[in-house]
Amino acid sequence: MENILRPLIVVGGSVLLTLLIGWATDRLLRKADERHPETPLWGLLRRGRIPYQLVLCAALLRASYDSAQLLQDYRVGIGRALTLVLIGSAAWLVIRIAAAVVETSYTRYASSRAQRDPARVRRVRTQVTLIMRVVAAIVGVVAIAAMLLTFPAFRAAGASLLASAGILGIVAGVAAQSTLSNLFAGLQIAFGDMVRLGDTVVVDGEWGTVEEITLTYLTVRTWDERRITMPVSYFTSKPFENWSRGTPQMTGIVYWHLDHTAPVDAMREKLRDILRECPAWDGRHYGLDVTDTTPNTMEVRALVTAKDADDVWTVRVTVREQMIGWLVRHHPYALPRVNTADAILPPGSNGNRRSPDGAAQRRAVDTPRPERG
Length: 373
What we know:
Elements: H1 2-35, H2 41-45, H3 49-68, H4 75-113, H5 118-149, H6 152-156, H7 158-163, H8 165-175, H9 177-192, E1 200-203, E2 206-213, E3 217-222, E4 227-231, H10 234-237, E5 241-242, E6 250-258, H11 264-276, E7 281-293, E8 298-306, H12 309-330
Antiparallel strand pairs: 1-2, 1-5, 2-3, 3-4, 6-8, 7-8
Helix pairs in contact: 1-3, 3-4, 4-5, 5-9, 11-12
């Protein structure tokens, strides 16, 4: 009877004590979260209750297993399994605690600077995300190494592994050259402030917003809700446009190709009226000029400003659409057209002779006038 009750008491007591301590700890964290709503730390720490209970249960079972005298023939294997569970759950708990502390620090920083310096907040968010990934990777590697060291065979092979570490390092470096370059590129992006979460970028002719940054790849969400996944080494080796660098304010350009008779002064006044009625215009600057001419048309350029990339797009399409509509309604002659008018020759030229039917002699505009001897 004692051989049956002792294992039940030890194992059951360990599980019951684990559940009791876990419930009490979660209760305390919940009360602390209610008393301190200004910080999310206590609520984030509650996410670690599962690994916390695993650590408690594994530690209690590992410490009391010899007293239970259960399955003595498999004592070594069961003890090693409990040690592995203890190491793994401890690493999981460390990652959860570190994430809670870092997330709390970022939340406080973002709440105080979100309105004054949003670009700085995005930069810190990028750094925090990548730092947590690095911490999780380091903790995971250490945990795996600790698990392997619990096996005597791996401890005995430690000396030979250290002796061949140089050769293995060279082989691994050559084999994982691309992965390592992306890893270091990810760290360079995090601390070099090249690109941040939420930045508006143009890569390979695609316009979008940076949605996710990891140690190896970066995801850009395009304006039409597609996702472009690119290696982070792209952003350290090739040029790209970052519209969010510095201040988010932008200047947009709108082009029209119009006839030479287009009323430029009236277009300037119309541009001013359009912008005054456009909520996306920030009121900083606008302008309209003739920037180029061709034999049949002239190029008219309008400059408009907005507070960010989304608004400058709205201002551009609004100005383009309303200006074209205004020209169609009030100045249709300003629209580009194929010139089929008669050539106008200087007075006294032989080209002014009239034909027998009284009509002037016609010439094509693009036909050169013959030289007179």
